[in-house]
Design brief:
With 359 residues, the protein is of the alpha/beta class. It contains 15 helices and 12 strands. The chain has one domain: Luciferase-like domain (TIM Barrel, Alpha-Beta Barrel). A hairpin with a 4-residue loop joins strand 6 and strand 7. The longest helix has 18 residues. The radius of gyration is 19 Å and the shape is globular.
């Protein structure tokens, strides 16, 4: 199982960090993680989400990260296609693939914020059409001149320049929450980026559904586990002092509460193409009671503690079929010094076991 990192570039007021400090320290953390042997890092795209995420331009951050790292994969987690023309996405991704020496991972998604949709003039009802047409364009872009005829995009004979280093294109993933999206990802032979708010018992069902859909659509290709195709994001703090880890990890409660606040409009009101989010509204009263660390642990949303405790927690996901575990270490709620210490603990006492076959 690969172990990656996850960045929202959060700016909680309680931590007192400005945006320049957050960006600088996050890049320094990635440089350290690269040297320690972590497999990759993913950066979100969000807009107008004060404190929760100050990451409206992930391609800029990833370009900087590409010059500070040498081996780890660098991923969009995710590009919101309804707000980004897929031709521009293909151009930017080709440039990023070159800058990173062929280390780019492309994650795409529909987004979930009605406010973002309103500001950018997109329709939530068209979100799946954006995904379907956008994926087709991204796959065609690295070749020669091509045309596209669709409901949303229509153009003749364009050629995307430059060309990415990876052939036929960088690996493509999709954020997937609903069963329909899980099945579509398998049918299209692209990876799934799951989480960070869906409980583990539901994700286990998603993994099984993804594998069944993959087997139906691609009966003669290797199983998805051979291609690292199902990734899950969790909150994490790992320190030699387990009590200190748990104390710092209380900040994860802030993160998940803010995540709930961002998704609440979809939990409370049925919207076109987002019916499954509305079906998850049973989670909202549970979290409203008070987000606590034990509750997050019980739901499988976080792993916190000593290296030994974290290793046991990670093994549960590996046995359950997760191919890439993406760690939001502190989720932007702990000082960079604590993030660095956590990176060292994981790299020195946990990652070596993740490289071995599961028990």
């Amino acid at each position: 199982m690969d172990v990656d990192l996850f960045y929202e570039l959060a700016a909680p007021a309680a931590l007192g960090r400005g945006d320049a400090q957050i960006y600088r320290e996050s890049l320094e953390e990635l440089e350290l993680a690269d040297a320690l042997g972590f497999d990759g890092a993913w950066v979100v795209e969000h807009h107008f989400m004060r404190e929760y995420s100050h990451s409206p331009s992930p391609e800029t951050f990833l370009a900087a990260a590409s010059q500070r790292t040498r081996r780890m994969r660098l991923g969009h987690g995710v590009i919101v296609l309804p707000f980004n023309h897929p031709v521009r996405v293909a151009e930017r991704c080709a440039a990023l693939d070159i800058l990173s020496d062929g280390r780019l991972e492309i994650g795409i998604g529909r987004g979930f914020s009605p406010r973002e949709y309103a500001v950018f003039g997109a329709s939530m009802a068209d979100s799946r059409a954006h995904m379907h047409e956008g994926l087709a364009i991204l796959r065609a872009a690295p070749g020669g001149p091509f045309s596209h005829r669709g409901r949303l995009y229509d153009f003749d004979e364009i050629e995307i320049l430059p060309k990415p280093l990876q052939a036929p294109h960088p690996p493509i993933w999709t954020a997937a929450v609903s069963p329909r999206s899980i099945a579509w990802a398998a049918e299209e032979a692209i990876g799934v980026l799951a989480g960070p708010f869906k409980p583990w018992f539901m994700l286990r069902q998603d993994i099984a559904s993804y594998r069944r859909a993959w087997a139906r659509a691609h009966p003669h290709t290797p199983p998805p586990s051979a291609n690292h195709r199902f990734a899950m994001t969790i909150g994490c703090v790992c320190l030699d002092d387990g009590a200190e880890a748990r104390h710092l990890a209380e900040g994860l409660c802030w993160y998940y509460q803010r995540l709930l606040d961002q998704t609440r409009p979809l939990l409370e009101q049925l919207r076109d193409s987002y019916g499954y989010y509305y079906n998850l509204r049973f989670l909202e009263p549970l979290l409203r009671r008070a987000v606590s660390l034990p509750m997050l642990e019980a739901a499988g949303l976080v792993v916190v503690g000593t290296p030994g405790q974290c290793l046991r927690g990670f093994e549960r996901y590996r046995r359950g079929g997760v191919d890439r575990l993406i760690l939001a270490i502190g989720a932007g709620t702990i000082p960079s010094d604590a993030v660095r210490r956590s990176l060292h603990c994981l790299a020195e006492q946990v990652l070596p076991s993740m490289r071995e076959p599961p028990h």
